């Protein structure tokens, strides 16, 4: 059922993204081609799915959350483009295809990432894509900017870069991933809740707890797949974490303990949703999917 819902969400967000990624002039066609390539070259759309599912959990319609769904995917895509650059992780394959700096060049990859980041905030603030109050759109802008910047995703990447070749504790590893991966996942859930127009402080607290657990579980499972999967299945270079001497959960805890930890986090996420009715079932199913996925 979660795969059917995933396809449903993919269709909705991809249709909206296509409209945002149309070049406004011939002079900008190459830039927009690089942007389009970076966003529309596959991907599970987990973050937009979280936006829509969170919105529906609180009784909202997904049409209220198009801006948020587009925004989180654009931020995610920009981060991948920049992370893949030679100055960062120096990866050649992403989603089974050449990375943006390989398909175009490094300069256009930088520009495409920059443009996708700013386009995310445009989408979030656009009344047509976010048909809610100005106050709610402002709150969503604050949530996404915090999650995407130095206190969130960018800060996590900085910790990641400084940890290469270092021996770090599980506490530091979790701090890195709660920033690098978890912050945008948590923002996706909160943005969907705000877009629903029915977010109470109690509901937001419960959804935050859910998102913190699945955000970390997502990264633990990524680390596990880097050991157990293969390049074709992953769509990116298998074993790249080991090759780059990066700290991972299997390396720190051992593979079996890392797998157990992923399921423990999944259980924490499920417990956080205990107060919600059947409208939260997509969130529940997604928690299961995150720790059982193969790529």
Properties at a glance:
295 residues; mainly alpha; Farnesyl Diphosphate Synthase
What does this structure look like?
Helix 3 runs antiparallel to helix 15. This protein starts with a helix and ends with a helix. 71% of the residues lie in helices and 1% in strands. It is mainly alpha-helical. The chain is globular and about 50 Å long. The protein has helices at 2-20, 29-39, 46-57, 66-83, 100-103, 106-125, 134-148, 153-163, 170-196, 201-228, 231-234, 240-243, 249-253, 255-272, 281-292, and strands spanning 93-94, 97-98. It has a two-stranded antiparallel sheet with strand order 1-2. The protein has one domain (2-292): Farnesyl Diphosphate Synthase.
Question: Which helices and strands, and how do they pair?
Answer:
Elements: H1 2-20, H2 29-39, H3 46-57, H4 66-83, E1 93-94, E2 97-98, H5 100-103, H6 106-125, H7 134-148, H8 153-163, H9 170-196, H10 201-228, H11 231-234, H12 240-243, H13 249-253, H14 255-272, H15 281-292
Antiparallel strand pairs: 1-2
Helix pairs in contact: 1-3, 2-6, 3-4, 3-9, 3-15, 4-6, 4-9, 7-9, 8-9, 9-10, 10-14, 10-15, 14-15
Short description, anyone?
The chain is mainly alpha-helical. Helix content is 71%, strand content 1%.
CATH topology: Farnesyl Diphosphate Synthase
Indicate the overall shape. Answer: globular
Strand order of the largest sheet: 1-2
Kindly, what is the distance between the CA atoms of the first and last residues, rounded to a whole number of angstroms? 18 Å
Name of the CATH first level: Mainly Alpha
Tell me the helix content. Answer: over 70%
Tally of domains: 1
Query: What percentage of the residues does DSSP assign to strands (E)?
Result: under 5%
Structure summary, number of beta strands? 2
Number of helices: 15
- Residue-averaged pLDDT, rounded? 93
Look at the helices and sheets and give the structural class.
mainly alpha
Biggest β-sheet: count, sense, barrel? 2 strands, antiparallel
CATH architecture label: Orthogonal Bundle
Q: What would CATH call the homologous superfamily?
A: Farnesyl Diphosphate Synthase
Q: Low-confidence runs (pLDDT<50, min 5 residues)?
A: none
Alpha-carbon Rg, integer:
18 Å
Order of helices and strands: HHHHEEHHHHHHHHHHH
């Amino acid at each position: 059922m979660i795969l059917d819902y995933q396809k449903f969400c993919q269709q909705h967000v991809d249709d909206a993204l296509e409209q945002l990624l149309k070049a406004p002039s011939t002079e900008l066609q190459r830039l927009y081609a690089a942007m389009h390539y970076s966003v529309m070259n596959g991907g599970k759309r987990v973050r937009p799915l979280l936006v829509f599912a969170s919105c529906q959990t609180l009784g909202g319609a997904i049409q209220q959350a198009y801006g948020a769904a587009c925004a989180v995917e654009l931020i995610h895509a920009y981060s991948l483009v920049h992370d893949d650059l030679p100055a960062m992780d120096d990866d050649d394959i992403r989603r089974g295809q050449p990375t943006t700096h390989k398909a175009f060049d490094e300069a256009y990859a930088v520009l495409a990432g920059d443009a996708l980041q700013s386009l995310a905030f445009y989408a979030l603030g656009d009344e047509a894509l976010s048909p809610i109050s100005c106050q709610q759109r402002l709150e969503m802008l604050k949530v996404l900017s915090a999650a995407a910047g130095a206190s969130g995703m960018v800060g996590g990447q900085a910790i990641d870069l400084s940890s290469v070749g270092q021996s770090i504790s599980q506490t530091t590893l979790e701090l890195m991933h709660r920033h690098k991966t978890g912050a945008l996942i948590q923002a996706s859930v909160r943005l969907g809740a705000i877009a629903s127009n029915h977010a109470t402080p109690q509901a937001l607290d419960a959804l935050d707890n859910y998102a913190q657990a699945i955000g970390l579980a997502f990264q633990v499972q990524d680390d596990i797949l880097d050991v157990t999967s293969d390049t074709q299945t992953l769509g990116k270079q298998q074993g790249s974490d080991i090759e780059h001497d990066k700290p991972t959960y299997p390396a720190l805890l051992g593979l079996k303990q890392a797998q157990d930890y992923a399921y423990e986090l999944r259980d924490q996420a499920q417990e956080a949703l205990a107060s919600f009715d059947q409208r939260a079932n997509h969130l529940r199913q997604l928690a299961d999917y995150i720790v059982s996925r193969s790529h």
